[in-house]
Design brief:
heterodimer, A: Peroxisomal Thiolase, Chain A, domain 1, Peroxisomal Thiolase, Chain A, domain 1, 2 domains, 12-stranded mixed β-sheet, 14 helices, B: mainly alpha, Non-ribosomal Peptide Synthetase Peptidyl Carrier Protein, Chain A, 0% strand, globular, PP-bd_ACP (chain B), Ppantetheine_attach_site (chain B), Minimal PKS acyl carrier protein (chain B)
Chain lengths: 414, 86
């Protein structure tokens, strides 16, 4: 039994359902190659809306992956989450019935819940009457739905929760899971998946001034450039298995990375200039918790909102927090190839960071070729280099900022 | 006058439609006194079936119909209600 104060949170499983790949290997390959998959939105009922380009998860067949009894009571965002969780658990060697149900918990982050399911039931309410609304409306739209369904489907009875703290909540959920592990829970299934590409959900997003309505997939999302015109949304997400590192080594499973440090701040909705200070403080806090010097950061996965004022604030925050190292460290934003899946965006970035450390190369930033900030942004093709420690940044449209430090699996044993 | 009666076949179809659970109607009939949860049906699933039957037959079922424990208990309640209103 390891001492709780020294318990370290290890990533032992990864599951991805993303626009550029179903499964972690497919996602990693696309990210490494800098594949851009942004495209015109094809989902039913969305054709007439002024938001034209997004990262859609295509060729995802929930019926092939999830039992019908779970499908009828859940929204697409939970389908993604359940599928990704199953992949992560298999990767960690924890598929099947848990031997110790109370030792496994679940925490997810959610930005909007089950909009498509909710719209369908509300249309029944106003079209046919209240008696035609199905009882699963009471749970399917809810932010916590994915956490609940993952825990029920897997038979997990450990501590469960949902983080509703804006897009940066994806990183906050990982920190929450790491804390749960440090406090004594053996295993946490953690991450986020979102499904914001349905009519009602899309109309909700139209009010965001940061949203890109450019209809050319190659030009719609180009952060850090003079042509930056906002961000493009995406669906999908990633779930990870985070567990006590000692237990993982005892089980004999590879430790893919460790969650070393995290901090979050809040600076107000769409107050992008102020996000500079908030993000810098989050970075310093995450470095402090990780016991990590700025120079130890080998790569930064940027938030890369694509709004000029926000991009400037982020570039300055990196310089504020990392000093001279901030202009030398490789920075990347693979999400320009797939869009921003809200709470799931920084979780997908964390997965990309783990894969980058495993493969020894910084993935490129698709569609971005000419930047106007003092950053070493990796563009066009992956850059081979040894990576031991990665910093992942995230900001939400409602004002949250977060930073997460992850270390390569074999580094944590030092 | 035709008396409508909900059969095990119809109940099995409703369980599939409302809760996504495939149940063999013959098995449902044979195990009619087994609790619903042994078929994997929870109370929200049964509540959805109550709502569907109310819409289908244009009648209200008694309060707490979704608390019936077994298929037999549920069909007895539903069919006595439908019969009373015929």
């Amino acid at each position: 039994m390891s001492n709780r104060r020294t318990r370290r949170a290890a990533v032992t499983g990864i599951g991805v359902v993303a626009p550029n790949g179903l499964g972690t290997d497919a996602y990693g390959k696309s990210v490494g190659e800098g594949l851009g998959v942004l495209d015109l939105i094809s989902r039913e009922g969305c054709e007439h809306l002024p938001l034209r380009v997004a990262g859609e998860v295509r060729a995802f067949d929930p019926a092939a992956l999830i039992e019908e009894k779970f499908l009828v009571q859940t929204d697409r965002f939970s389908h993604f989450a359940m599928a990704a969780a199953a992949l992560a658990l298999d990767d960690a060697g924890l598929g099947g019935d848990p031997a110790e149900p109370f030792s496994i918990g679940v925490v997810t982050a959610a930005g909007s819940g089950g909009g498509e399911f909710g719209q369908r039931e509300l249309q029944k309410l106003w079209g046919q009457g209240s008696k035609f609304v199905g009882p699963y409306q009471s749970i399917a739209w809810f932010y916590a739905a994915s956490t609940g369904q993952i825990s029920i489907r897997g038979g997990f009875k450990g501590p469960c929760g949902v983080v509703a703290s804006d897009e940066a909540g994806g990183l906050d959920s990982l920190a929450h899971a790491a804390r749960a592990v440090r406090r004594g829970t053996d295993v946490m299934v953690v991450g986020a998946a979102e499904a914001p590409l349905a009519p009602y959900s899309m109309v909700c997003q139209l009010g965001y001034p940061e949203l890109s309505t450019v209809d050319d997939p190659d030009r719609a999302y180009r952060p850090f450039t003079e042509k930056a015109c906002g961000f493009v949304p995406a669906e999908g997400g990633a779930l990870l298995v985070v567990e006590d590192e000692t237990r993982a080594r005892e089980r004999g499973v590879p430790v893919r990375a460790t969650v070393a440090g995290h901090a979050a701040t809040f600076t107000g909705a769409s107050r992008w200039a102020e996000s500079r200070e908030g993000l810098a403080r989050a970075i310093r806090g995450a470095l402090d918790e990780a016991g990590c010097a700025p120079e130890e950061i080998d790569v930064v996965f940027a938030d890369a909102l694509g709004v000029p004022e926000a991009d400037r604030a982020e570039a300055l925050a990196i310089a504020d927090a990392l000093g001279a190292h901030g202009t030398r460290v490789p920075v990347t934003a693979p999400k320009t190839g797939i869009g921003r899946a809200y709470c799931a965006a920084p979780v997908l970035d964390t997965v990309a960071a783990v894969l980058a450390m495993e493969q020894g190369r910084v993935p490129p930033t698709p569609n971005v070729f000419d930047i106007c900030h003092d950053l070493d942004l990796v563009m066009s093709r992956a850059r081979p280099t040894e990576l031991r420690t990665a910093l992942v940044l995230s900001r939400g449209l409602m004002g949250s900022n977060a930073a997460l430090v992850v270390r390569r699996g074999d580094e944590s044993a030092r | 006058m035709i008396t409508t009666e909900v059969t095990f076949d119809e109940l099995a179809a409703l369980i599939k439609q409302a809760a996504g659970i495939t149940v063999d109607p013959k098995e449902l009939k044979q195990s009619a006194d087994s609790p619903f949860d042994s078929f994997g049906l929870d109370s929200l699933g049964l509540l959805g079936i109550v709502g569907e039957l109310e819409n289908r037959y244009g009648r209200s079922l008694p309060p707490d119909s979704e608390r019936c424990r077994t298929p037999q208990e549920f069909l007895n309640l539903v069919n006595s209600t439908l019969k009373a209103g015929a």
